[in-house]
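Protocol step 4 of 5: obtain the predicted structure for the target chain.
Materials: sequence only (see below). No template structures provided, no constraints applied. The aim of this step is simply to have a reference model before the mutagenesis design in step 5. Sequence pasted as it appears in the construct record:
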Amino acid sequence: MPNSTAVSLDTLERLMDAAWPALESSTADGWVLRSAGGVTQRANSIWPAAESSNPAASLRHADEWYAQRRQPVIFQLTRRPENAALEDFLDGRGYSRQSETIIMAATTSPADGPAPASISVDLADTPSAEWLDLWWSVDGRGGEAEKHVARDILSGAPSLYATARNSAGDVVGTGRLSLVDGWGGIYGMATHPDFRRQGVAGAVLAALMKHALAAGAERMWLMVTNANAGAQELYRRAGFAEVGRYHYRQAPLRRAPGAC
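Step 4 output (structure tokens):
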């Protein structure tokens, strides 16, 4: 499958923000402050959409904004020259680095190869309870309240949800296609631990790419953690190539006076 990597990071950052929207947001001199009750890093992090003219003042504003929500200050920083000064600024304040993530993109084309005969993939406009249960059991952090917030995040952008079932009708895989400005974004890829390496993820990805093509999305993007080599290989076989990276920077914990 052909792929194209000629895409600006500005475009990708805008697409990623739209496809995984926070439930509330504010601004601080070019920075976008995002919050969703602490559910998922992206929806609860600062996106420096533009360079702040006064990072110290912007950070004070961010500290207050997140303190009101009882959340830590977290930045999501794409690896790009424009963020170098901010990286140095956060280094000086002891911010940790977390969750190195690869951004991949491709020209939309039909995925190669048939799906396993034992796997069927259904598509829906909303995530079913079964879809949410499997995805949350694999990638979620928290209980029912947090899962409810995650559903609100998922519902914040026009999307399609793929549910993979085995021959017994059990849900064994999930995926989400977000359609934004002629692009298709892949999210929510999860496979039941008992059914990994059986073609489930490939079948889900193929179904979502087929729908993206039918919906007129000429290009696609996705994110995968740097540590997940298996998923990276799956996406490369489907025509995706690395176009950028990002990571998170989190404020150091503040200990109360006299705390151990």
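Step 4 remarks: The helical segments are 9-19, 55-68, 84-91, 129-139, 144-154, 200-214, 229-237. The two ends are 56 Å apart (CA to CA).
Proceed to step 5.
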